[in-house]
Amino acid sequence: MTSFFGLQRMARYGWILLLPILLSAGAAGCRGKKDDGGNVLAQVGSRELTKKDFQELCGAHPDSLHRFERWRSIENWIERTLMELEGEKRDLEKRPDVALKLHEMRAELFSSLLLSELPADPPADSAVERYYENHRGEFLRPVDAYQIELFWAEHQNIMARFRDQIQRGDTSMVAAGDVTAEGKWLAESRELDHDLERELSSMKPGEATFPRPYEDGFRIVRLLETYPAGTVLDLSVVREEIVARLLFEQSRARQDSLITSLRERYPVRIFVRDSL
């Protein structure tokens, strides 16, 4: 189980982080297009965002998303395009520091794509169990921790009704698209604001907090389990975190292998005398 606030933001906004890597190239497909029959979702200057562009950028057709998610994605495109237009107007790409950063980001993107072509099997259960046994001490909680599940909706009355249902184990409003499930997280008490931590500490597993305002909507937090300070977390709780660690180690090994093969393919010569 990974960090609460770090992965929470990654899960919610992670796809946005890749878009600036492409910069104007990512928006090139949105430039100078004419309305092809009501398929244009937004326009900034001469650039248009069509449904096809939206699907390519976001990985989903706009009609398949909840209204809020669709609106937020369009707003993200508008803000990014405004920045690109102003940056191009000022010739920011010609600045040495910007050119260097673009070069680095381009190489990172290519690296991700090349690595994705290499075979990678998920860690076997035996590898996960072995890692857990060898690193049990790392999963001891120094402070109180809570395994929680987050849910979000636009309207408070929907969240209030969902809270009553979720405490009975009914998640039908998630399946219907009225409520967004944001995932399960392991949150230490020091990561939570005081009011939320106090509320969780008085709850039993299965209970949910009252709706709280969050990002143009409302959120509730359902408590799944409480782990007092000094508790060693069960493998079932930390399995995802262990898998993530093993995948990271696997990725590093694959990257080393890729660099080795590329060095064999492209001759490398270093002309600095004091090079290692």
Describe this structure in words.
The chain is built from 9 helices and 6 strands, in the order αββααααβααβαββα. With 276 residues, it is of the alpha+beta class. Among the domains are: 14-89, no CATH class; 141-227, Roll (Chitinase A, domain 3). The strands form 2 sheets. A 4-stranded antiparallel β-sheet has the order 4-3-6-5, sandwiched between helices. Strands 1-2 form a two-stranded antiparallel sheet. α1 crosses α3 and α5 (125-134) crosses α9. The model is unreliable at 5-35 (pLDDT under 50).
Which helices and strands occur, and which strands form pairs?
Elements: H1 4-27, E1 40-44, E2 47-50, H2 51-58, H3 67-89, H4 96-116, H5 125-134, E3 145-153, H6 156-166, H7 172-175, E4 180-188, H8 194-201, E5 212-213, E6 218-227, H9 235-265
Antiparallel strand pairs: 1-2, 3-4, 3-6, 5-6
Helix pairs in contact: 1-3, 5-9
Offer a concise description of the structure.
The protein has helices at residues 4-27, 51-58, 67-89, 96-116, 125-134, 156-166, 172-175, 194-201, 235-265, and strands at 40-44, 47-50, 145-153, 180-188, 212-213, 218-227. The chain is α+β, with helices and mostly antiparallel strands.
What strand order characterises the main sheet?
4-3-6-5
Q: What form results from the Cα inertia axes?
A: extended
Straight-line N-to-C gap: 40 Å
Estimate percent helicity: 40-55%
Count of alpha/pi helices: 9
Tell me the Rg in angstroms. Answer: 23 Å
Mean pLDDT: 85
Q: Unreliable runs, pLDDT <50, ≥5 residues?
A: 5-35
Proportion of strand residues = 5-15%
The CATH class of the domain at 141-227, by name, is Alpha Beta
CATH architecture heading of the domain at 141-227: Roll
